Amino acid sequence: MIRQLRCTGGIWFTYGGLNGIIDPGPGSLYHICNASPFLDVNSIKAVLLTHKHLDHSTDINVIIEAITEGGFRKQGTLIIPEDAMTSPDSVLLNYSAQKVSRIQKTKDGLITELDHGVSVEAVKHVHNNVDCFGYILRKEGLRTWGIISDTKPLTTFAERYKDCDYISVNTTFLEKNTHSEHMSISDTMELLQELSPKLATISHMGIKILNKGPETLAKQISNKHTRVVAGQDGMIINLDNLKVFTPVVDKKIKIKKYRII
């Protein structure tokens, strides 16, 4: 986050007709407003926060301000850990909380029904003494998407995420690190071998992974059941066919194009 080697704007999703943002960290609104293809911030109907650490949460009030047009259009559902809104160092301002239509304080196993028949299930994580959750998005007829945020590896994940066709995993360390509650490359590899989703992406990568070459590492931990792809800024995942599109900028005409990888 500090050197912005990778952007910290969060994950924009369009799932079953529902637009939302997960973990709006530093620069989230800026990146949404400058995205190509165009993203309409006013179309966001759901904001999901995994935990309150700065690299995941700094733009949460800014995003609420944007999607509610300064509070003149009360709308949207906010799914948020309790300590992110009630603790002495909460990240959600009371001023902002009053502007959204619904706030759901999440807990393990809680399923929140959203617009367009989309549901979100919370999965408890363990991460540096803050309330932290992953999420699973489901809708009848669509592929199931699992999100694993910052956490130490948990044996419960193999059961909780077993029906996911696509999983995005925050993978921070090149090697196992018992002193910090983040997933490593080998942790992610072991979990994916148990789960066997069709597609997985690794993101939230630390400096050692970036220096080693995340694309190479992703190929190394792929297996016959699961293709693993290293996340990139601006990457698009098509859940209908599990195709992955990465941005290519034409410097001559300053237009961002996409290619399938």
Furnish the topology, listing elements before pairings.
Elements: E1 11-15, E2 18-22, H1 28-33, E3 46-48, H2 54-57, H3 60-67, E4 77-81, H4 83-86, H5 94-97, E5 102-106, E6 111-113, E7 119-124, E8 133-138, E9 145-148, H6 157-160, E10 166-173, E11 183-184, H7 185-195, E12 199-203, H8 207-212, H9 214-221, E13 227-230, E14 236-238, E15 243-250, E16 255-260
Parallel strand pairs: 2-3, 3-4, 4-5, 9-10, 10-11, 10-12, 12-13
Antiparallel strand pairs: 1-2, 6-7, 7-8, 8-9, 14-15, 15-16
- The H-level CATH homologous superfamily, spelled out, is Ribonuclease Z/Hydroxyacylglutathione hydrolase-like
Counted beta strands: 16
CATH topology: Metallo-beta-lactamase, Chain A
Q: Count up the helices.
A: 9
**Mean pLDDT rating:** 94
Q: Strand pairing plus helix content: what structural class?
A: alpha/beta
- As an assembly, this protein is single chain
Strand percentage: 25-35%
The CATH class name reads Alpha Beta
Shape: globular
Task: State the end-to-end CA separation.
Answer: 26 Å
Tally the structural domains.
1
What Rg is obtained from the alpha carbons, in whole angstroms? 18 Å
Low-confidence stretches: none
